Input
Amino acid sequence: MQFIDQVVIEVEAGKGGDGIVAFRREKYVPAGGPSGGNGGRGGSVIFVARENLQTLLDFRYKHLFKAEDGDRGGPNNCTGAGGKDLVVEVPCGTAIYDAGTGAMLGDLITPGQVFRVAEGGKGGLGNQHFLSNRNRAPEFSLPGLPGEMKVLRMELKLLAEVGIIGLPNAGKSTLISSLSSARPKIADYPFTTLVPNLGVVRKPTGDGTVFADIPGLIEGASLGVGLGHDFLRHIERTRVLLHLIDATSEDVIGDYNTIQQELQAYGRGLAKRSQIVALNKIDAVDRDTVDLEALATQLNQISHSPVFIISAVTRTGLDPMLQEIWRTLDQMNTAEALEAVV
Output
């Protein structure tokens, strides 16, 4: 399935039905009088978040979403039928913006969450509504009002608690395949990962935590360079960042700083997000020439974050790293629970 995480669409709610002019003509109703009914309300456009959807692909080929118009009123004071609402299913994690102003209109996170994005127009009033002592036979009615029309920009931001970041070929896809049942494409050339991959990692308690493997970032990613800049938004919702660094690199510290600079440039608080650093690919390092422990200590002094020495291929060091991730998430949950009480 093609992964699409940004689209621009147009939504149009239904027009309200027109009110009508009608009079009672029954043989045994001598007074007669106006009996034109009101028009029905136009249908609205409603977005619903669905857990089983993973991409905005359906919106790539259909750009206009229009709800039904309301029916015109009828005689004998009958109100026209309302237009049927148009229910549009979107993936959980979809943010909805006004394409013109850039203002966020809605953010659908939880399964089943509903957002009425365009309101249907009100039905017009029939002539029976204008009956008065001064006007016993009104011969006019009102048309229905148009429904709301909007041009929307939709962004899908993956819902994951842990985001795996790093330069291309740091071993992110290998790590997520080792930790979960996800099977991303893996190769020894840059930018193997072209789309974010999700994997569920089981805690010792049996609960599942979603990890996201974000395509590799390079210098200038926040400005649109490389592939990763389109996917920085996917770590906006993550609670913990797992920064993976290739231990075979000639400049491990430089690699770390490159990613940190991109997070800082992108903004939205990513640089302040809780991080755990992992030196990966230690199975390919010549221990006689590289002092991994010294590198880890240096990274710890620079990052002020826990640093682990691991191999995603041989699964060396993964358990202590996961324990630190679970501990960090538990601390966050406890802090959030205390804030909610206060």
